[in-house]
């Protein structure tokens, strides 16, 4: 039954994408840019509905009050295709720095360029990257929210983190708050797999890291804060969904965290004076 539901969802997901692109493309390109963004946002909402009805997967968002007004950088964990679109309905005017090849895809590339996304040649250096940063700052000055995945690519839940220092340079240059976001969608929509798992999970938006820190200090703060929240959510998510088939990375990390909890409990008991 799990595989049947996964197949049905995947079929519905891609049919929904193709149908909306074909039917709504004329409307999308007629509307002003910000108003046109309602179309991909509603597409994201429809995907959430499909996941709930077909697979039985739901989620909730904590910490929306932590999102500052005006320009900021969202720094979410990246585990699944799900987190590339899932938060769109809660983001006022998001912008991505993406590889330029994506803009060459028919229809999709046109959608991307209308929203003034920032294409970049990943092999570029020097003046090209300076121009990218200047363009990014212009968009942020207009109150947009930049989405950056600090690890650069999708990582399995519980995997050893591999953060890239590029976000620290952007933080230094752009001078806006950075909002870490912890979540484990990869437990329900695994990367590079077609199966989808039912259950419920949380997306936790953490307090922003304000501008002004030294880049090294910022980078350390981001990694420490996001990994601590991710570990807490991993424990909570597994306890709330005992049926989940955990990938090896998540199972190993969960065992490490539980061992640390047990050790901390023993240390606390030993350091607490016994009552007479």
TrEMBL record:
InterPro entries: Plipid/glycerol_acylTrfase. Pathway: Lipid metabolism. Its EC number is 2.3.1.51. GO terms for molecular function: 1-acylglycerol-3-phosphate O-acyltransferase activity. Residues 72-186 form the Phospholipid/glycerol acyltransferase domain. The keyword Cell wall biogenesis/degradation does not apply. The chain crosses the membrane at residues 12-31. Keywords: Acyltransferase, Membrane, Transferase, Transmembrane, Transmembrane helix. Pfam families: Acyltransferase. This is 1-acyl-sn-glycerol-3-phosphate acyltransferase.
């Amino acid at each position: 039954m799990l595989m049947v539901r996964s197949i049905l969802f995947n079929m519905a997901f891609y049919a929904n994408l193709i149908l909306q692109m074909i039917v709504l493309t004329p409307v999308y390109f007629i509307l002003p840019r910000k108003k046109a963004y309602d179309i991909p946002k509603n597409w994201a909402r429809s995907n959430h509905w499909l996941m709930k009805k077909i697979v039985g997967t739901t989620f909730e968002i904590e910490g929306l009050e932590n999102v500052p007004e005006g320009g900021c950088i969202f720094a979410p964990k990246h585990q699944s295709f799900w987190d590339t679109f899932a938060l769109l309905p809660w983001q006022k005017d998001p912008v991505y720095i993406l590889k330029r090849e994506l803009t060459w895809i028919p229809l999709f590339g046109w959608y991307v360029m209308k929203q003034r996304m920032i294409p970049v040649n990943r092999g570029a250096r020097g003046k090209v990257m300076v121009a990218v940063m200047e363009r990014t700052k212009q968009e942020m000055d207009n109150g947009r929210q930049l989405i950056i995945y600090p690890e650069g690519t999708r990582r399995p839940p519980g995997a050893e983190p591999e953060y890239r220092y590029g976000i620290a340079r952007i933080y230094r240059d752009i001078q806006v708050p950075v909002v870490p976001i912890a979540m484990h969608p990869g437990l329900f929509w695994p990367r590079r797999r077609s199966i989808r798992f039912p259950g419920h999970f949380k997306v936790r938006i953490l307090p922003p890291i304000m501008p002004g820190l030294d880049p090294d200090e910022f980078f350390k703060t981001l990694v420490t804060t996001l990994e601590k929240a991710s570990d807490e959510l991993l424990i909570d998510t597994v306890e709330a969904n005992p049926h989940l088939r955990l990938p090896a990375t998540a199972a190993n990390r969960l065992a490490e965290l539980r061992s640390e909890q047990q050790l901390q409990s023993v240390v606390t008991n030993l350091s607490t004076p016994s009552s007479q």
